[in-house]
Specification:
- One of its GO terms (molecular function) is DNA binding.
- This is LacI family DNA-binding transcriptional regulator.
- Keywords: DNA-binding, Transcription, Transcription regulation.
- It is built from eleven helices and twelve strands.
- By secondary structure, it is of the alpha/beta class.
Length: 323
């Protein structure tokens, strides 16, 4: 059996220095998305495993296929842009490798382990999700999209959701907004909590004592309802952060109906940089998360059987007209 590749060999294959490769793999500093992708692609291609990884962390049996398990209701699979972006990118990698991608949905509270083909790409598992708990002890090769639910030891690939919330807060502060509210995603979803925490903690550090929060489920309708609630309970707000672009679009509809101008009266920032962000009126300022990059890297790591590395890619504030 050939020797395991070294960090220096991975760095050379990625076209970066060993120091840069090390920083990418430890997540200690911000590195560009393109550089991270180069390093992670080299890692997955070469089967590199960090020394802290447990013995046997590279699969001895090649992965013959991947099942994407979406922990959501079936209609959401077709209505939520995030899933389309993620599955399209993952499917492209699988096709390049001559294997297959199977897609299945499970109820958000289901404990039934579906029929699985090959390794598992787990998407949308919330806190104490019974299926995620089962997968941890199933012996099946799994990689979670997003930081896994609390206390679950699953390999993952994620974006820096906390920093995305921080960037939104700093933009509001720099543009003189004084009364910021938020529309959070489901509190049981780690990504939603991280986005809200980044916003709220940054605002509090700047002296903003109270941040009213309403919650939605990442749909436009829930954003509309949450915004209506905020207008009743915090009528003096002059900025709102929504944890998804669809919720931000719904919030803008509610503001328009209430006679509030965006951004003159209320600035709005979303999260995702989904296609809808470019088609709202005004165009939506949002935090871009590199969904396709995360899906590509996670799928490559699954196919190679590589563990011991949990990529976290940076987010980026995209300034348009709504804030």
């Amino acid at each position: 059996m050939s020797e395991q590749p070294t960090l220096a060999q991975v760095a050379a294959a990625a076209g970066v220095s060993p120091a840069t490769a090390s920083r990418v793999l430890t997540g200690s500093v911000r590195v560009s998305t393109s550089t991270r992708r180069q390093v992670y692609e080299a890692v997955s291609r070469m089967g590199y495993v960090r020394q802290r990884a447990p013995r046997g962390s590279v699969s001895r049996n090649p992965v013959t296929g991947i099942t994407a398990v979406i922990c959501d209701h079936l209609p959401r699979l077709f209505s939520e842009p995030y899933y389309a972006r993620l599955l399209s990118a993952s499917g492209a990698v699988v096709a390049e490798n001559g294997t297959h991608l199977t897609i299945t949905t499970v109820n958000p509270t289901s404990s039934v382990l579906p029929t699985l083909s090959g390794a598992v790409l787990l998407v949308g598992a919330r806190e104490r999700h019974p299926l995620a708990i089962k997968l941890c002890t199933s012996g099946i090769t799994v990689r979670n999209i997003g930081r896994p639910p609390h206390d679950l030891k699953l390999p993952f690939a994620d974006v820096d959701n906390y920093d995305g919330g921080r960037q939104a807060a700093e933009h509001f502060l720099l543009t003189g907004r004084k009364s910021v509210a938020a529309i959070g995603g489901p509190p049981s979803l780690p990504a939603a909590r991280d986005r809200l925490d980044g916003l709220v903690k940054t605002l509090r550090e700047a002296g903003v004592a109270e941040v009213p929060v309403a919650y939605g489920d990442f749909t436009a309708a829930s954003g509309t309802h949450a915004m209506q609630w905020l207008l009743r309970h915090a009528p003096g707000l002059d900025a709102v952060f929504a944890a998804s672009d669809l919720m931000a679009a719904g919030a803008m509809q509610a503001l328009r109906r209430a006679g509030r101008r965006v951004p003159a009266d209320v600035a709005v920032i979303g999260f995702d940089d989904a296609p809808v962000a470019r088609h709202t009126n005004p165009a939506l300022t949002t935090v871009r998360q590199p969904v396709e990059e995360v899906a590509t890297i996670a799928t490559r790591l699954l196919l190679s059987g590589t563990t011991g590395i949990d990529p976290i890619l940076p987010t980026e504030l995209v300034i348009r007209d709504s804030a």
